[in-house]
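Treating backbone geometry as a discrete language has practical consequences that deserve illustration. No coordinates are needed to read the tokens, only the vocabulary itself. For completeness, the protein is quoted in full, as a sequence line and a line of structure tokens:
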Amino acid sequence: YTATSNNLQFNSISPLNTMNMAKPSANDIEQMIQRARPTNRDLVRRDINHGINSSISSLLLKIAPYFYNNGTSKDLLCLHGTVACQYKGNRYYIPIEIWFQQDHPNVPPLAYVKPTSDMFVSTASRDVQPDGTIIIPYIKNWRHPNSDLQTLLKAMSEAFSQSPPVYSNSNMVNRPTPYPINPPAMPMPTPVTMPMNSGGNPSYSYPYGYPQTQIPQDVYRDSVQTAVLDKVRIRLDEIMQMGKAQIDSLKKTEQDLIDGERKIQSFIVDAQQQQSQAQTYITNLQTKTHEMLEATQKMSSSSGKGNNSVKEDALITPAPVYKQLLQAYAEEHAMQDLLYYLADGLKRNSIGLDTYLKHVRELSRKQFILRATMRKCRQIAGLPLK
């Protein structure tokens, strides 16, 4: 396209060499998807395969940093190559790039026309902005799940067939084709608009860094500083997040230790109270045991005297043998009651097993002697034996 004639200087051309390049294998595509880590990997993989295998385009896949207008960057998947269009009976191939955002296809892709050093973007195009951004209605109205990349390529081809988005440079009239065989590298997709040249034609430095004009050194310096600051900021955020997580973990551990200390103190207080109660029980048991021993000794001493357990005037016996029988009978029943209370005290844990066995052994021996004495007295008195 020239400034004087305003005519397209296109001849019938061949697509870029991406058609002759080997398509990426499924393994290469999967590795790049894993590096980019999109949210919807299956849908991204589907659109990539549709774009690479489309009959109206010749696209290859790469992963490269995309620089946003706010100075941040992110590694995104990009399909780059050409899309075919028909204009005035001839077939042309428009160089494009399509960037997949992290939430693709919930958000539309970022599409750009990729002009070479001998091309300019048409200022009259309704489908492409001066910085190369493609703004066809299909991208503006992108809605998932009704929108996909295959239909987007068809919409681009139809829009470019109505109005080609690029013009050839008037200084490159003798060049047989406006498309370079080996397109230059694409360091970043941030558009930078350049001033008008002396001939009145717009001169742009598009988001792909073509050597159309010399980029000042301070632009590179600012770009590198921005990238370094962004990486430092990201790393600092990661370190702060890790530190915050560690602090939260330590705080939780501290709270757990405090709760554990409170529980241990409560257990110690309960144990001390139980120890005090046990000591009280032991003292009471020793007192009761001492009283029982004294009562048993008194009973034994009274039994040895023979005439103190029953008053002389309580019962009148006709003979001494009956008196001895009555005395033995009373003592035997008293021992029987004492054995009962000893067993009840053992059951209630009022006395120990050793104390119980000691007194039971002693009382049983005395009870045996009393029963033998009662049997002998009955024989002498002529009373029936039970």
Observations:
- The first helix runs from residue 26 to 36.
- The two ends are 145 Å apart (CA to CA).
- The beta strands are 57-67, 73-87, 90-100, 110-113, 119-121, 166-168.
- The longest strand covers residues 73-87.
